[in-house]
Amino acid sequence: MNPIFKHGPSPQHRLILVLFCSAVLIFFDHKMSSFDVVRGYLQSIVSPLQYMANAPKQLMTWGAENLVTRQRLMTENEVYRKNELSFHEQSMQLNIIKQENERLRSLLASPVRPDIKKMFAEILSVDSDPYTHQVLINRGTSDGVYEGQPVLDEKGIVGQILHVGARSSRVILITDVTHAVPVRIQRNGLRLTASGTGRIDLLIHNFVPHSADIQEGDLIVTSGLGGKYPEGYPVARVTRVSNDETREFLRVYSQPIAEIDRLRYVLLLSKEEPVSIFAPKGASEKIKEAASVTESN
User: Fold this and answer.
1) Domain count of the chain?
2) What pTM, to 2 d.p., does this model score?
3) pLDDT tens for residues 192-220?
4) Ordered DSSP codes for the chain
5) Which of 237, 246, 270, 290 could form an S-S bond across to 105 if both were Cys, CB 3.0 to 4.6 Å?
């Protein structure tokens, strides 16, 4: 139902009025900055709505960044763990090489006289029989090894070659119960025999008269008798002298100079000219390095 009476201006007049008011407001705002305070209040009222409208986007962006960062950190941590294991393994290898170089340098600096030829050898295995003290080395007849050849480390006499194979040989140690070495006291030249006791840290000297001049701490060296061991190489040091008058002889005990339980590399001595000085297999570069360091020192 259409109204009978129409009140108010027409739409055209309203549009003209709105445009006029807008132009006036724009003029005063642009020229006189009259509405800055009102704009500030309106901005404060509208800001929470803007933050609420922008919150979902910011939340999604934050989640995506954190997810990517966590995944990247996990990947980097895994790489770092692998690198750490690799570095630890390399460090252990370097420590092993360092220890081997120290042993080789000690062997090169051992008191071998110029007329004695030397040959390097590496311990392959240790006899598991508790009643025998023998080791296997990586040298044989092809390298010029022979039975009875003396063996020593950087400190003293270790033993002698017992059996020789083509590529390996068996060494009987001076601590074996079946082994004996003609020795003498370095201080006074008193001749003795050093026999193995089956213990790696103990030698016994039998048939020593009560009148013998032996003191604890005396150095025992090879006497050169018997033709097996060259003269003057350290064998043991006297640790105990038991002077029991009820016994027919003194009981003299000594400790080997060589580190029998820590052998890795040894020297084989020979008065014959070998074809070449052999190094332990896989250790030629280490020996060259150790030799150069020893010469520089």
Assistant:
1) 2
2) 0.59
3) 999 999 999 999 999 999 999 999 999 99
4) ---SS--S--HHHHHHHHHHHHHHHHHHHHHH-TTHHHHHHHHHHHHHHHHHHHHHHHHHHHHHHHHHHHHHHHHHHHHHHHHHHHHHHHHHHHHHHHHHHHHHHHHHTS---TTSEEEEEEEEEE---TT--EEEES--GGGT--TT-EEE-SSSEEEEEEEE-SS-EEEEETTSTT-EEEEEETTT--EEEEEE-S-TT-EEEEEE-TT----TT-EEEE--TTSSS-TT-EEEEEEEEE--TTSSSEEEEEEESS-GGG-SEEEEEESS--SS----TT-HHHHHHHHHHHHH-
5) 290
